[in-house]
Amino acid sequence: MYGIIAILIGGLNIALNIEQEKYEIESDNFLYDEDYNPIELEEEATIVKKWTGSYYLKTNETNQEYKLGAQCIAYQESSRTINLYGTMYRIYTDGAVAKLTEHTEITRTSEDQLYKLGDRRYLVIGNSITNETGALNTTGYLLVLIDKAGNTYLLNNELNSRTIKPMVINTQTFSFDVANEKLIYNEKEIDLKKIIGSTNQYVEPEEKQDPATIIQNINNQSSVTNNNQTNINNDTTINNNEQNNTNINIGNTDNNGNEKTELAKSVALRGTKTGPTYIDVEYSIIDPENKYQTVYLLVDGGGTSKTIALDKDQTTYRVTGLKENQEYQITLATRQLDEMGMVEENIEDVTAARTTKVNSSLKITKISLTDIYFELIIDKNQNIDEAEIVLYVDGEEKERQTVDIDKAATTGGWTSSFNYHYGRDILIKVENATYNGSAIQVDIQTKVKNY
User: Fold this and answer.
1) What are residue 325's phi and psi, to 5 degrees?
2) 433 with 440: CB under 8 angstroms?
3) What long-range pairs does 321-325 form, CB within 8 A, spacing at least 24?
4) How many helices (H) and strands (E) does the chain have?
């Protein structure tokens, strides 16, 4: 028994001491943790693959650690270099597949490339990455995550969005039918589900027949039946056909009998850009005949529910008052009157966006008999123009200072001190923060009990 335990312990020690994959990366890299929360590096860091099979990122100075999962993608914007860590598959336009393991560096991001990272997860690389409507228009790389219903999440260093409509992503070389997981090149299709399998349950919806076509088919069938009747009924058939033609043309003529063509109208989401407390929603509204009564956004998430009417003459709206690092569903909807004068509301497009995570910090570094020393670091994503920092001792305000925003926004942060005599409960917090002349709410504070 003891011998078996010794063998198990020995095996575990060997496993733990196996040389780990270890990679040093520079400060200007953009990554995601295992839940696809963005990580913007401001200092050098190390990526290590532990014996569990997961990659971890640890910053060299501040020792912050992030779990990256079984795979990792790091994008360095200054050099436009992409580093891949873990097992994934490159798919070529001729159907060939190359398995990649450990570390792969991609320096030619101008070359159109497609990688399958795992079940319903892909990476598209290219100089121009678009879709047919123009809602997607980015460059460099794009992470494509598909849920089982075929909905799509699109992520890179410039965007974080979601769509419920089937999408075809285009590069200059190939097209990627996302919902059906097919690579299209020179009119040939490659089924990407066959590569390591897929749990995608998306089914193409049945094509709906145009109502006018249905009416025409019914009329045509009626005409055939009537033509088989006696000559007495032929007159009725002619009259019926004339009446049918009149009915089909209703709505295509004006009061003077002139043909009238309805001008095209449409609304669409074009993309989102996020900050810690806001989401910029880009949209387009084409309504030449002013048929839409209202075009509006529904924003849900983080305990917030907003309904926002959009200006048809604008293309961007900033949704404010949101919480950091929260996912919000953004629905674009329209309200118009139907032919009967009844109000008709339609959901036109849906996307999801996550506000950025703010890593501002405030900590007490030293307490002496006469002074309290502190360090304040303000994340670059937290937009603050001015602020004050205040010392409270046992609930009573003792002193306040103006924050040096320029220094606080650097990697090293801003250090200063307060005069201090005696007190048990010490609280230091940032107050009276403003941005673009408006007051903003921030929660940056630290407290300690001094015994």
Assistant:
1) 55, 40
2) yes
3) 321/277, 321/278, 322/277, 322/278, 322/279, 322/355, 323/277, 323/355, 324/276, 324/277, 324/355, 324/356, 324/357, 324/358, 325/37, 325/276, 325/354, 325/355, 325/356, 325/357, 325/358
4) 4, 35
Under the phi-then-psi rule, with left for phi > 0, alpha for psi from -120 to 50, and beta for the rest, what region is 334?
beta
pTM score, two decimals?
0.52
- Residue extent(s) of CATH 2.60.40.10 domains in the chain: 266-354, 361-449
SS3 354: strand
Q: Measuring CA to CA, which residue among 97, 95, 94, 73 is closest to residue 85?
A: 73
Neighbours of 226 (CB within 10 A): 16
Structure tokens at 61: 């100075």
pLDDT tens series, the chain, 451 aa: 555 555 555 555 544 444 578 999 998 899 998 888 888 888 899 999 988 889 999 998 888 889 998 989 999 888 889 999 999 999 999 889 999 988 999 987 788 999 999 888 999 999 899 888 777 888 899 999 988 777 788 888 888 777 767 889 999 999 999 989 999 999 899 999 999 888 888 877 665 555 555 455 555 554 544 444 444 444 444 344 444 444 434 344 454 555 555 567 788 888 888 888 889 998 988 888 888 889 999 998 888 888 999 998 898 999 988 888 888 989 999 988 776 767 788 888 888 888 887 888 999 999 888 899 999 999 877 888 999 999 999 999 999 999 999 999 988 899 999 998 788 889 999 999 998 888 887 889 998 887 6
Domain 361-449: which CATH number of 2.102.10.10, 2.60.40.10, 3.40.50.720, 3.40.50.1000 = 2.60.40.10
What's phi and psi for 18, nearest 5 deg?
Answer: -60, 140
266-354: CATH, from 2.60.120.10, 1.20.1250.20, 2.60.40.10, 2.60.40.1180:
2.60.40.10
